[in-house]
Amino acid sequence: NSLKNIVNFLEFERGNIMELNESRDDIFITHQYPDPIKRTSGLKDLIPWWFSQIILGKKVIISPDVLPPEAEKEIELTRHAPFQSSIDIPLLSGNTVIGALGFSTYTYNVNWNEGILKRLSFVSDIYANAIARKKNEEQLDKFQEQLQTENIILKEELKSEYDFENIIGDSDVIKYVFYKIKQVATTNTTVLIEGETGVGKQLFAYAIHQMSKRNKLPLLKVNCAALPANLIESELFGHERGAFTGADKIAKGRFEIADGGTIFLDEIGELPLELQTKLLRVLQDGEFERLGSSKTFKTNVRIIAATNRKLKEEIEAGLFRKDLYYRLSAYPLTIPPLRDRKSDIPLMVRHFANKFAGEMGKKVQSISKITLEKLTNYSWPGNVRELENIVERGVVTMKGTLLNITDELENYTPAIDKITTLDDRERDYIIKVLQITDGKIYGEDGAAVLLGINPSTLRARIKKLGISSKKTIS
């Protein structure tokens, strides 16, 4: 409308607003009155002499009697063009040309005297300021978007000080988990990490990422239980300006930021059903839309999900999509609870004691025998997280260099196992191993290798001990 008003007020018959492209090697018409924009390509090749003058910040008046001989294309154009008079004025931001403002007439010649040139210079300054402001706002939006992305990545990089060395243990069950991680880490397969609260599922997710081909980018984490549904959607897929109250600018989601990398979806069982459909689409097609937009984005991410819920029961209850479960569980990984890896507890106690002592400026030279015995015999319903908290409190109250946290354990009841026969013990252990291997006996990831016996021997023991193949062996 402003261009229309200027053209009518100054009694011209056409007006153009032009802007330089980002590389500043061509100029394009962005607004035109009264005709709609007919030319979408650049003007540099069409009128090269004109472009050379504009880029130098010079006004250009085009008519056959004032053009120099080197303006061959411009002279040829005037012979066929319908206009009688034309002027183009560079738009300047400081000393930099950012575009041009042009006016022309079809039916009469214009005397480009000093008065009209002053008017046009005043108008061009207004347009130059408006274009410069628009470009600055666009650059600011891009900068804020980039800053937001870099801030998210930086936070994740600060949190991702995890590798295999941070997973403490040398028990058979944890060694088998390491083996499974090494199998899947270098692939792009989706992994579902299952285990009780506090077993350290996030540590194992980071270990997978660190051993993967995507480890040059950070692993981005989203806790599906920490945010309400509308914010989780924005966190995962991003949103457009105005998509909801408070959305005053465009924001990229984790799937857009993590393109080429890995996303860790913690507490995946808490994801609302309506978002499970969108997540399934990302898994199947690598596509999604920002909240408030119909534009489809493509992404190439690896998904590692974790849950402490029994998702098959959630499916039966109608709280989790069966098709999404099968997509996520392409490679299930079960993290054993601490009570099933008690031989790792002394190692973990020493690790946590040295870690917290270092942070507090203390030194742990020894750990009392009774402390290790009580910690090893406790059932640990809170798993590794609970053990870590107990050791931290013990280091806080420690005097000297001996860690003795028996006072902390006064209310802790040891896990006293019922006395059973050796056959019962063997039977229970074989069942646990078969559950870990999903019932597989033969092969590198089979139960026989984990137990260190011949597969035929294991078959014989299964038969002798009356272990049901329907429940444990697939």
What structural class is derived from the secondary structure elements? alpha/beta
**Helix coverage percent of residues?**
40-55%
Number of helices: 18
Q: Please provide the count of β strands.
A: 14
Main pleated sheet: 5 strands, antiparallel
Mean pLDDT: 84
Order of strands in the sheet with most strands: 2-1-5-4-3
Q: Spans with pLDDT under 50 lasting ≥5 residues? A: 157-163, 413-418, 470-474
Roughly how many Å apart are the termini? 73 Å
User: Which percent band covers the strand fraction?
Assistant: 5-15%
Please state the CA-atom Rg, rounded to the nearest Å: 35 Å
What would you call the shape? elongated
Task: Describe this protein's structure.
With 474 residues, the chain is of the alpha/beta class. A five-stranded antiparallel sheet has the order 2-1-5-4-3, sandwiched between helices. A hairpin with a 6-residue loop joins strand 1 and strand 2.
List the helices and strands and how they pair.
Blueprint lengths: L1 H8 L4 E7 L6 E7 L14 H8 L4 E3 L9 H9 L4 E9 L2 E10 L8 H46 L12 H14 L5 E4 L6 H10 L8 E5 L5 H9 L16 H4 L4 E5 L6 H13 L1 E3 L6 E3 L3 E6 L3 H6 L5 H7 L2 E4 L10 H16 L5 E2 L1 H9 L5 H15 L4 E2 L18 H15 L10 H5 L3 H11 L3 H4 L2
Parallel strand pairs: 6-11, 6-12, 7-8, 8-11, 13-14
Antiparallel strand pairs: 1-2, 1-5, 3-4, 4-5, 9-10
What's a quick, concise take on this entry?
This protein is an alpha/beta fold.
List keywords for this structure.
44% helix; alpha/beta; elongated; 5-stranded antiparallel beta sheet; disordered C terminus; 5-stranded parallel beta sheet; 474 residues
